[in-house]
Amino acid sequence: MCGIVGYVGTRPAVDVLIRGLRRLEYRGYDSAGVAFFRGSRLEIRKAEGKLENVEKLLNSNLSSHGEATCGIGHTRWATHGKPTTQNAHPHQTGHVVLVHNGIIENYQEIKREIVAKGFHPKSETDSELFGFLVLQEMDRGANLTEAVRRSFAHVQGACSVVVMSEREPGVVVGVRNGSPLVAARDPLGGAILASDAQPLIEYTREVIFLEQGDMAVASRDGLRFFSLESGRELQRETATLDWSLEKLDKQGFAHYMLKEIHEQPTALVDTLNGLLDRVRTDPFPLAEQPGVKLLDSAREILIVACGTSWHAAQIGKYWIERWARVPVSVDLASEFRYRSPVVGPGTVVIGISQSGETADTLAVIRQMKEQRIPTLAVTNVRGSTLSREADAVFYTSAGPEIGVAATKTFTAQLFVLLLLSGYLSLRRGADSRAEIPAFFEQLVKVPHILADCLGSEAMTATRKAAAELVTSKGFFFIGRGYSFPVALEGALKLKEIAYIHAEGYAAGELKHGPIAMIDEGMTVVVLAPQDAWRDKTVSNLEEVKARGARIVGIGAASDSSLASLCHHWIPLPSITQGLDESLLPFLLTPILQLFSYEIATIKGTDVDKPRNLAKSVTVE
Ligand code: AGP
To answer: What is the pLDDT of residue 278?
Structure first.
């Protein structure tokens, strides 16, 4: 979704803005722009497409921005109006300039009023309209901060804005009313605001996550906070970030996605260490925290999520039911919130979201809180809205994920869900509890086995298969049991980054319709590791083979009968033999991630920033 940066201080403002926007590029965008003070006048440079286009405009006239020490910048992901220069932010209305992230739901109503008063918006956006509201309030005598505050009373919808005015050079006013905004004091004087913390850590680790309904007013003197509702000044706590700049760089990998695929062993170790009390020697020693108490009280669990996080939830359901015998239902957050769900007493709702900002997942958590249903979050971002609004949080510790396609955050989410399953098994005295100590011993080895797998022959075979199948007209990914949601995730990755039509299917469902599509032009990727479902999956594979599809098989290295059915064979390394079948998704997943990555790079797509996608989906 859109990215915002605002800065005032002693540094060259445009440099701070562009560097900040670069760090927000991963969110996905289709146009960009900056506004800066030249003396007491505001100037804007904006363009369609990539940030480079804005930089070209800036470089063609260096003198115009070299001295600026105050400005705002934006990367836009189009919602209202096409991705054109005209619709790009910042928007200027008289002496007011603003950037906006989110949606103004009642924009048509506001537009009618504004047009009736004789104003003429230049863009098709909802965002520009806010500037007219601020202009009117300032013309009535309000200062910039108060004008922004009063204007918000007219706005419905979740958004954040950052505003400047030529009447108050050197003041940047930001509001968080839904979409996230983070602020920090610059140690050299002044302050910086942004949609997330990544643009800030170059300057400081001490940041303030604005609360819903907070205003931040930045000037050379620093940073102050006010309530959007009352206008009263507020005190806000500073949080210390543990992310390092080094972790944000590509470290020699061609893409962030590839780096993040290889960071999965570390992400799992860090997640494990973040959640377990490693001094204890009992299995699944979840460290004392509020989330554990909530889990203990659960008679049923409902998990809500979107996209990849929803796939993690599906695997979590299989695990929690298998290990702990606690009933679990899984819902797409966007569906759940608009039907009339029945959530029984004793249910604990878990929202899974790597970003912690996904609008639909947040909405469900809010609905549940209104109904006094206990809520838990699983997220990768400390200080994210989800982490603050849920009753308790289990963090994945995957570190910043820059590639838009989720990789390491997915496997880290899986790790959290498996840790919760094992913990609940013991806690509930489930029949499986006798197996738990041996299972836990295997689980703690998963990061090492995964590291081995990433350097194994499986990856060479994956690259080879991908290179030979890049022209396939379509893909099915099939599996049963735990491998079914892994197949869904494999298909999503291919669609996201390679723009090839792909579907994930439960292998047993193929014959109920989709098999009609199978012919020589199609590829079927079959996940058939050595587990309880292997034989059934292989018999489904025979049906596909008979109809001429190209087959990529992933299974145990010793499974020669499966290998003989496949055109491309990807053997799991022998180190995986004897592993409990619950752990196999950790080894199948990176193979599918790499498979999509290879096809995408051969096709030459923008792997880290695929078209039309955003890293954190803060609109419905
Ligand atoms: C994952 O590769 C996708 N970019 C997308 O499906 C994502 O998982 C979904 O938007 C949910 O995001 P979240 O985990 O941040 O809530």
So the answer is: 77
Is 306 known to be catalytic? no
- C-beta of residue 91 within 8 angstroms of C-beta of residue 33: no
Share of the chain above pLDDT 70, in %: 98
Among 255, 308, 332, name the best residue to mutate to test ligand 1's pocket (greatest count of ligand atoms within 8 A of Cβ): 308
Can you tell me the mean pLDDT for 593-607? 97
Residue 415's pLDDT is: 97
Beta strands in 511-612 (DSSP E): 522-527, 550-556, 568-572
Active-site hit among 46, 493, 609, 615:
615
CATH code, 3-241 = 3.60.20.10
What lies within 8 Å, CB to CB, of 434 at 6+ separation is none
Q: Which pLDDT score, from 0 to 100, does residue 96 have?
A: 97
d(CA 87, CA 121): 10
Predicted local confidence at residue 246, as pLDDT: 64
Q: Would the pLDDT of 243 be above 80?
A: no
Residue ID of nearest Cα to ligand 1 atom 16 = 353
Given a cut of 80, whether residue 247 has pLDDT beyond it is: no
CA-to-CA dists, residue 272 to 34, 141, 398, 416, 440, angstroms: 41, 56, 10, 8, 12
Query: Which mutation among 26, 260, 309 tests ligand 1's pocket best, with the greatest number of atoms within 8 A of CB?
Result: 309
Q: Looking at the domain 455-609, which fold is it?
A: Rossmann fold (3.40.50)
CA of 598 to the centre of ligand 1 (A): 21
Instruction: Compute, in angstroms, the gap from residue 594 CA to the centroid of ligand 1.
Output: 18
CA–CA gap between residue 26 and residue 58 (Å, rounded): 22
Residue 390 DSSP symbol: S
- Residue ranges covered by each domain of the chain: 3-241, 248-444, 455-609
Neighbours of 121 (CB within 10 A): 19
Ligand 1 site, residue 361, Cβ cutoff 6 A: yes
Residue ID of nearest Cα to ligand 1 atom 3: 405
Tens digit of pLDDT for each residue in 186-229?
A: 999 999 999 988 899 889 999 999 988 999 999 999 999 999 99
Question: Is residue 303 a contact partner of residue 485, using CB atoms and an 8 Å limit?
Answer: no
Terminus-to-terminus CA distance in the chain, angstroms? 11
What pLDDT does residue 10 have?
Answer: 96
Structure tokens at 370: 């209104």
Distance of CA 231 to the CA centre of its chain: 33
pLDDT digits (tens, 9 = 90+) for 130-159: 999 999 999 999 999 999 999 999 999 888
**Per-residue pLDDT at 245 exceeds 80:** no
Output DSSP code: residue 422: H
Do the domains 455-609 and 248-444 match in fold? Answer: yes
Give per-residue pLDDT as tens, 289-307: 899 999 999 999 999 999 9
If we measure between CA atoms, which residue out of 201, 176, 189, 174 comes closest to residue 73? 174
Question: Residue 368: what residue type?
Answer: M
The Cα 154–Cα 175 span in angstroms is: 14
Segment 557-591, tens digit of pLDDT: 999 999 999 999 999 988 888 899 999 999 999 99
Q: Based on the residue annotation, tell me whether 2 is a catalytic residue of this protein.
A: yes
Give the CATH superfamily of 248-444. Glucose-6-phosphate isomerase like protein; domain 1 (3.40.50.10490)
